[in-house]
Amino acid sequence: MALKCGIVGLPNVGKSTLFNALTSAKALAANYPFATKEPNIGMITVPDTRLDELSKLVNPQKIQPTTIEIVDIAGLIKGASQGEGLGNQFLANIREVDAIIHVVRCFDDTNVVHVDGSVDPVRDKEIIDTELLLKDLETVEKRLDKQKKQAKGGDKLEAKRAAGIEKIKEHLETNNPARTFEVDDEMVEIFNSMMLLTAKPILYVCNVDESAVHEGNDYTAKFKELVANENAEVILISAGIEADIAELESKEEQLEFLTDMGLEEPGVNRVIQSGYKLLNLITYFTAGEKEVRAWTIEVGTKAPGAAGVIHTDFEKGFIRAEVIKYNDFIALGSEQAVKEAGKMSVEGKEYVVGDGDVMHFRFNV
Fold it and tell me: Which tens digits make up the pLDDT trace of 39-61?
């Protein structure tokens, strides 16, 4: 599944440093605005200890984790919706991602310039929110004009759609993001077709210094208060620490570094896992001697759809799915032991795949 998370924020808040830590790519991370002009793109693996545990039992020739695409998008400034800075490019790039990771700067450092001259994550967030809302309003107004013309002939359905778009416009005009608008069934197709920027799910990452990575600071406290009603997750990480961890070659060195810092895991792991959940995704597994592999599906996917992620023929010719719950596999130690214990179920086309299911598909083409 070609799913993308876009890293956004004002210039020079640590987006590219975070991107490098996430992907081990060598994107330019520099101390001046607009260091990123073209979006940097990388594939990142989703950390999942269950994959490791299954592999210990199966001992496969190959282990294949699941991945998502991460995009480091050019920094935004005030006036971007009118084309200021790299605004048009930024907004076009963000329109193409499925979810947003919004990085805000929550640390003081006189050696790192801020595009607006001072550190204020609340102000920074409001700048980006405003620019995205303004662009969305422009999109909605254009669509509304078109819809009103279609409704002039007296068609009641077209008039109802125009009224629905008018409500979306009013919602945005009161500084509410499109993601908080309650869309009725009749408006879903139109709403989705507009690809509104503020409709995308969002994860906030507060980039802090080393001293604030555990408990946060005054900046993060004010920021959390600001977004308390958004039902959005806020993660504290130090992009500098993550960059140091990414430079270490072995897991042993990384673990020692994390222990010294009083951390249980790299902050980027939490960012990736939260981004995965943000996209409404879960993982199921296939496990055999040749390969133990994690597969990405959306929550609510039925067995044939999950099979289709492996190959379209699996979905077309789906017969049944043999399902083992992850905990049963781990507790009993092998597929054969699970079968002997009567813990493997045989499911049909209506089975909704659960997170962590170990699947084997039967099909005929």
Answer: 678 888 888 999 999 999 999 99
> How far apart (Å, rounded) are the C-alpha atoms in residues 2 and 69?
7
User: In sequence order, what are the residues at sequence separation of 6 or more whose Cβ sits closer than 8 angstroms to the Cβ of residue 99?
Assistant: 4, 5, 6, 200, 201, 202, 203, 275, 278, 279
Indicate left, alpha or beta for 60 from its phi (over 0: left) and psi (-120 to 50: alpha). Answer: beta
- Do residues 357 and 323 make contact, with C-beta atoms less than 8 angstroms apart? yes
**Cα separation of 360 and 314, whole Å?**
11
Distances (CA, A) of 84 to 16, 71, 81: 21, 21, 7
Query: What is the C-alpha separation between 157 and 147, in angstroms, rounded?
Result: 11
In this structure, the strands spanning 40-45 and 67-72 are: antiparallel
Q: Which DSSP letter does residue 132 get? A: H
Residue 186 corresponds to which tokens in the numbers above?
Answer: 């009749």
Cβ-based neighbour number of residue 192 at 10 Å:
11
Q: Which residue has the tokens 């492996």?
A: 310
| Alpha-helical regions (H) of 41-185 | 49-58, 87-95, 121-151, 156-173
Sign of CA dihedral 241, 247, 251, 257: negative
Check residue 332 and report its DSSP letter.
H
Strands (DSSP E) found in the chain:
4-8, 40-45, 62-64, 67-72, 99-105, 202-207, 233-237, 281-287, 291-298, 318-324, 345-347, 358-363
pTM for the full predicted model: 0.81
Identity (one letter) of the amino acid at 132?
L
Count Cα neighbours of 183 within 13 Å in the Cβ-side half-sphere.
Answer: 19
What is d(CA 298, CA 284) in angstroms, rounded to the nearest whole number?
Answer: 10
Task: State pLDDT tens for residues 135-167.
Answer: 899 999 999 999 998 888 777 888 898 999 999
